[in-house]
Amino acid sequence: MAGHSQFKNIMFRKGAQDKKRGKVFTKIIREITTAARSGLPDPAANPRLRAAVLAARQANMPKDTVERAIKRGAGGEGGEAYDEVRYEGYGPGGVAVIVEALTDNRNRTASEVRAAFTKSSGALGETNSVSFMFDRVGEIVYPAETASADDMLEAAIDCGASDVESDDERHAVLSSVEDFNAVRDALEQRFGEAQSARLMWRPKTTSPVDEDTATSLFKLLETLEDSDDVQNVYANFEVAEDVITRLSA
Questions:
Q1: Long-range pairs of 127-130 with CB within 8 A, sequence gap ≥ 24
Q2: Cα 31 from chain centroid?
Q3: pLDDT one-digit tens code per residue, 209-248
Q4: Looking at residue 20, what is its pLDDT?
Q5: What pLDDT sits at residue 81?
Q6: Eight-state DSSP code of residue 167
Q7: Residues 186/154, Cβ–Cβ less than 8 Å
């Protein structure tokens, strides 16, 4: 187990942070509705719904909006049923990309995702064409000020986590899918509610890319994130800090 990451797992977050609140809310509402429909409408008894409600709280979504989404998903109100779809492909530089979507129109979403890959000189692949390069894991995130890296590492070990990545902004505690709920509950008993807690795709390895490739990749990921249907995007690359600084300027 490592207390500090040598590189940050790449899940493109800039796009989601830059979007208008309405688009963020749309994605969260879809997840809440789907989670409530697929399990019990009680967050305490439905881990997926609990994670979605936590995301809503972090986004400052009004409580009545959350409650309506849960009610709609549980069958209390009419509304679309969303299918869960995963797309896999290669972006610029041969970088592997996984796209998770919730959609009420598979043809529309597939067309949008395929167009994004094609426009970036990438290629959409078959299911499982790149997922073997990733691990499915649980991730529980706390702000860096919650504890020191050493204290978080010790707590994570005690809770049965598999890894911890700490930096100046956050602690990301990783677990197996099977242990995710137990690790999250144990950490919350010690440190309080997590900043986020979810299942995710973590690249087994990442490859450095140059500035030109990074620019093209970021455009692809931004385009994907801009779709209301796309929930999460993961890619197995890393970018040097000086390149990120220039691209963010």
A1: 127/86, 127/88, 128/88, 129/88, 129/89, 130/88, 130/89, 130/90, 130/96, 130/97, 130/98
A2: 12
A3: 998 999 999 999 999 999 999 999 999 998 877 777 776 6
A4: 59
A5: 81
A6: -
A7: no
Largest interatomic CA distance in the chain: 51
- 188-220 in b/e form (b: 16+ CB < 10 A) is eeebeebbbbbbbbbbeebeebeeebbbbbbeb
Instruction: Please tell me the predicted confidence (pLDDT) of residue 240.
Output: 75
Could you tell me the two tokens for 126? 């078959």
Query: Does the pTM exceed 0.90?
Result: no
Mean pLDDT of the chain: 87
Domains recognised in the chain with CATH numbers = 14-73 (1.10.10.200), 83-132+208-248 (3.30.70.980), 133-203 (3.30.70.980)
Which residues pair with residue 176 across a beta bridge?
A: 137
How big is the chain, counted in residues? 249
Instruction: Compute φ and ψ for 241, nearest 5 degrees.
Output: -60, -40
Residue type, 110: A
- What is the share, in percent, of the chain residues with pLDDT greater than 70? 88
The string of pLDDT tens digits covering residues 31-81 is 999 999 888 889 988 989 999 999 999 889 999 999 999 998 888 555 678
Assigned token pair, 180: 């995710």
Q: Which residues contact 120 (CB under 8 A, 6 or more apart)?
A: 91, 92, 216, 217, 219, 220, 223
| Residue 134, both tokens | 């990733």
224, 174, 223: which is closest to 199 by C-alpha?
174
